[in-house]
Design a protein that fits this description.
By secondary structure, this protein is an alpha/beta fold. Helix content is 46%, strand content 12%. The chain has 19 helices and 15 strands. It has a seven-stranded mixed beta sheet with strand order 4-10-9-8-7-5-6, with helices on both faces. The termini are far apart.
Length: 486
């Protein structure tokens, strides 16, 4: 019988051999991809038409599109070029008759069929709660699995030495999309972590006044309430019209409640209850003129419709990436204007040397690298569609089902349809129907997932389709609601 030390050596040897085989396969794969690309260069270039880029802008050729897919970190994203999900996006874009007209693209069902086929979702269910969390396309799922597999080879080395540094590529790309410096973006696990970092990180003293709307996300309101209990700050919440006629009404509602001791205003970019887009820039200007810090909760906004940091004029912004960007679950980012980083304490302790470093907000202990790195593939998929096309499609899908239900006098849509005030979320209210009852009926009897919104002033079922949602699924939803009301 072999000794225990011999057995241990044998296991180690087998692991080394397995690792070498993996490296050989990886090298061969890389050579194969390079050979394909070299052969492609030798062929006569074919113009496949404009390809959607960041924020709806266009790139003129497939070669330009592939360069965008590679991004700043070619090593991290190169394997994705062979992925069927991204290939579908590229090929579908090339077939568009008028790729520079988002309204026409929104109605091109052949194009969206290709996008829909990039997902591995269960079509026996209809997920109309994408405002909560969305599935990722297969390209993102596979990227995450690759990173997980690599990290497991020797975690203290492969995860920390190989993978963790690649977060910088993702940071750069997120900053490019948001329109800020890469040294102003911290990668977080969600919008809640980003916003709680800000709420708990601000230096406030007893008696300081904080303004927040009742339509803000409940977790953020609870965070403020805890600060009020612990630190003696004064939290004032207020209600507003569910779907105001003018965005200026929301600004006025904030302005009239400002006091001499108001130190912070927390505002949502998109209200989670009904999808109302708030006039963030005007509120940020209002706060800046009064010396008041404005925190923006953008959980539902990033990669949802076109905007950049300069459109908002904000100093602080937190968002999730697992909603409209279709990134892995448990991803988000925190933006802090560079000169204000020092003002905010991190949620978990960091060294004094990091006071002005955005990465102090990422000091959370051991964490998987795969989630953050696969955000790169989600950005690539998003770029392939184009945010202007995505926004137009989301509005088209909502108008599609609304047009088939709002003839019933009991039905009210408690979301303003103006493009400046809404995009992918709508609140369906039915007179005499409890939102929870409709939610349960749709899920139990029809496999349709919605979000039940309850409250004294805002109640209904939030409906939020996404780019993978089909018209047939919306027909199924309409039929189920009609049957419920019959």
């Amino acid at each position: 019988m072999p000794s225990s030390s011999a057995f241990t050596l044998s296991v180690s040897a087998r692991r080394i051999l397995a690792s070498r085989r993996w490296l050989v396969r990886r090298e061969r794969g890389a050579r194969s991809i390079m050979a394909i690309r070299i052969r492609a260069r030798r062929q006569t270039p074919v113009d496949l038409g404009p390809v959607a880029g960041e924020n709806g802008r266009t790139m003129k050729t497939r070669r330009t599109f592939l360069r965008t897919l590679a991004g700043a970190g070619a090593v991290a994203t190169l394997p994705c070029l062979t992925n069927d999900a991204l290939a579908r996006v590229s090929a579908a874009r090339a077939r568009l008759a008028d790729p520079d007209d988002p309204e026409k693209v929104a109605r091109d069902e052949r194009y969206w069929r290709d996008i829909q086929s990039a997902f591995s979702i269960d079509r026996n269910l209809v997920n109309l709660n994408n405002g909560g969390v969305s599935p990722s396309p297969r390209s993102v799922q596979r990227a995450m699995q690759r990173y997980l597999d690599h990290s497991q080879a020797a975690p203290s080395y492969t995860m920390w030495r190989h993978l963790e540094p690649r977060r910088e590529t993702v940071r750069t790309r997120l900053a490019k999309h948001f329109g800020c410096d890469r040294e102003e973006i911290a990668i977080t696990r969600n919008a809640s972590e980003a916003m709680e970092t800000l709420i708990f990180g601000l230096d406030l003293k007893p008696g300081d006044h904080v303004l927040a709307c009742d339509h803000n996300y409940p977790r953020m309101l609870n965070t403020w309430r805890q600060r009020a209990r612990r630190d003696g700050i004064v939290l004032e919440t207020f209600d507003v019209a569910t779907n105001p006629d003018r965005p200026s009404d929301l600004v006025a509602a904030v302005e009239k409640r400002i006091r001499k001791n108001t130190k912070v205003i927390e505002v949502v970019h998109v209200a989670n209850r009904n999808g109302q887009i708030w006039p963030v820039r005007d509120i940020c200007r209002l706060g800046r003129a009064r010396g008041i810090t404005v925190l923006v909760d953008g959980a539902h906004a990033f990669a949802h419709f076109p905007f950049r940091r300069d459109d908002l004029e904000c100093d602080f912004y937190g968002t999730s990436l697992h909603k409209w960007l279709l990134a892995p679950h448990g991803t988000g980012f925190l933006y802090v204007k560079k000169e204000r980083i020092k003002e905010i304490w991190p949620l978990m302790a960091a060294t004094e040397a990091q006071d002005e470093d955005i990465r102090k907000f990422e000091e959370i202990g051991t964490h998987p690298a795969a989630n953050a790195l696969a955000v790169g593939e989600a950005l690539t998929f998003h770029e392939g569609i184009g945010v202007a096309n995505k926004a137009a499609r989301l509005r088209y899908l909502n108008r599609y089902w609304i047009a088939r239900l709002d003839k019933d006098p009991r039905v009210t849509i408690r979301t303003n349809d103006e493009p400046a005030q809404s995009c992918g979320l709508r609140l369906l209210h039915i007179e005499g129907v409890k939102p929870g009852d409709l939610h349960s009926h749709l899920l139990k009897n029809h496999g349709i997932i919605t979000s039940s919104i309850g409250g004294e002033t805002v109640s209904g079922n939030r409906i939020s389709p996404n780019v993978y949602t089909t018209l047939e699924e919306l027909d199924r939803f309409v039929h189920a609601v009609r049957a419920f009301l019959a």
